[in-house]
């Protein structure tokens, strides 16, 4: 369970501090929110019975959801099942979900959720987003601690950076780090703050709700910032996003979109 401290909750009011609001952002958020879902698990005899772990968003026919693969790294207990939560607050509805495909290299997964269809988010192509692009992301920071009310952070794409960087000494190397250095690819570094629970949130252009990335700091941080931990601490507060082209590629594979 994630414990919310007073300082963390206070910081939630500082999302996107110092970034000029996009003129079209309120309309863009309204367009994006119906596609966003909370992702977690349900077990009837557990207290609480429902746990929210992350965020996802509908694509394609509205029954396929993109999110982060690391969410499903644990084994479900007996009679526990993956679910998504649609809507918000007391009106949120729970639907069963099936994990279709996972791309562990880029930490992306697709789910198939029960009908009815959700509004599908519009995905960008394979182009690289420019540094300075105004973006926003909508999701469930801190899971359900703040209630099932998706919130939005705004900022810019600060840089395109490698998902892993060479380490200064062998003490910070492990099998996971070595593998990621061999499979290295670029991710977006964002000038915006994400929290546990935001994993899988759609990162979209602030002016037209086109998804350009997927929030994913849990996967990137350990290998990218291992050498910096003694200087800036862990976590650093920097947020990363996986480019959406990897999500498009996964969903296009046979059996990975449910269609």
Q: In whole angstroms, how far apart are the ends?
A: 35 Å
Strand content: 25-35%
Strand order of the largest sheet: 1-2-3-6-5-4
Q: Regions with pLDDT < 50 over 5+ consecutive residues? A: 1-20, 166-170, 229-233
Compute the CA-based radius of gyration.
18 Å
Mean of all residue-level pLDDT scores: 83
* Largest sheet: number of strands, sense, barrel closure: 6 strands, antiparallel, barrel
Helix content: 10-25%
Order of helices and strands: HHEEEEEEEEEHEEEHHEH
Counted by DSSP, the helix tally is: 6
Global outline: globular
Number of strands: 13
Helix and strand content put the structural class at: alpha+beta
Account of the protein in words:
With 259 residues, the chain is α+β, with helices and mostly antiparallel strands. The chain has six helices and 13 strands. The protein has a six-stranded antiparallel barrel. A six-stranded antiparallel β-barrel has the order 8-9-10-13-12-11. A hairpin with a 4-residue loop joins strand 2 (50-59) and strand 3 (64-67).
């Amino acid at each position: 369970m994630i414990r919310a401290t007073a300082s963390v909750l206070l910081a939630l009011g500082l999302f996107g501090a110092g970034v000029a609001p996009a003129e079209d952002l309120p309309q863009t958020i309204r367009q994006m929110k119906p596609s966003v879902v909370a992702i977690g698990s349900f077990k009837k005899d557990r207290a609480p019975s429902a746990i929210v772990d992350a965020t996802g968003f509908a694509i394609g026919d509205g029954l396929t959801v993109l999110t982060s693969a690391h969410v499903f790294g644990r084994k479900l207990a007996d009679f526990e099942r993956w679910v998504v939560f649609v809507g918000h607050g007391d009106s949120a509805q729970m639907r069963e979900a099936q994990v279709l495909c996972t791309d562990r290299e880029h930490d992306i997964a697709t789910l198939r959720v029960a009908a009815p269809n959700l509004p599908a988010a519009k995905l960008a192509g394979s182009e690289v987003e420019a540094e300075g692009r105004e973006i926003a992301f909508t999701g469930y920071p801190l899971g359900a601690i703040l209630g099932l009310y998706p919130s939005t952070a705004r900022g810019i794409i600060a840089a395109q950076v490698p998902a892993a960087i060479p380490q200064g000494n062998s003490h910070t190397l492990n099998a996971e780090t070595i593998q990621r250095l061999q499979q290295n690819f670029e991710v977006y570094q964002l000038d915006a703050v994400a929290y546990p629970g935001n994993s899988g949130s759609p990162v979209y252009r602030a002016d037209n709700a086109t998804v350009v990335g997927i929030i994913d700091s849990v996967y990137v941080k350990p290998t990218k910032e291992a050498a910096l931990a003694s200087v800036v601490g862990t976590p650093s507060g920097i947020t990363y996003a996986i480019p959406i082209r990897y999500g498009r590629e996964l969903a296009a594979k046979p059996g990975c979109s449910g269609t």
